Amino acid sequence: MVSDYGKGLLTDDSIARLMSAETGKPLAEALAETNASARDYLDHLFGHTLVREVDAHPDLVCDYTRFYADRARRSTVDAFFSALEVAGRMYETIGPILEACDALVCPSLVTHEVEADQPPWALMDVRGRSIDSDYESTLLPPFNMLSRLPVLAVPAGIAPNGLPVGIQIVSRSYDDVGPFRVAAALEASAPWLDTPARRPPL
Q: Which of 89, 127, 166, 172 could pair covalently with 108 via S-S, beta carbons 3.0-4.6 A apart?
């Protein structure tokens, strides 16, 4: 649900809904474009650091690191600039909305069914649908592209399967204190991990 802009909090299930409303694209198509752009952005911006480590210490890195390094080797400047263009369009949509609100609150993950040992190169099944476990299972990467928007991830309770779940609080541009204020208010109204019932079993 999206709240009245004048009431302080804008809550939505993903930035893709905001993008799809602006671009006219169906939600699934807008989300796929966002995920692909976030992947290209992060592969090019950070992946080459992993390439150096893999090349320098091939016997010390795990399969997870090698996977991201190998993908970074295939990244291109054109894909990176295309990702920046997508990020610009995203900001044109969400930036003005956040100026009228205190925060956008959305899930950190789209599912609580991600296994601890789920490899990022493998598909995972969620309610009969196969999704990319690397980018389709999370709503974190889009905000990595929108780095001027401060984001804070906080606990949000325990899922029916006993695993902890979280939300992310996104504030307006460069308002670094904003997400902490919203998180403090949430914690005051619904404390986190303060009783056994609100802690995951170990």
A: 166
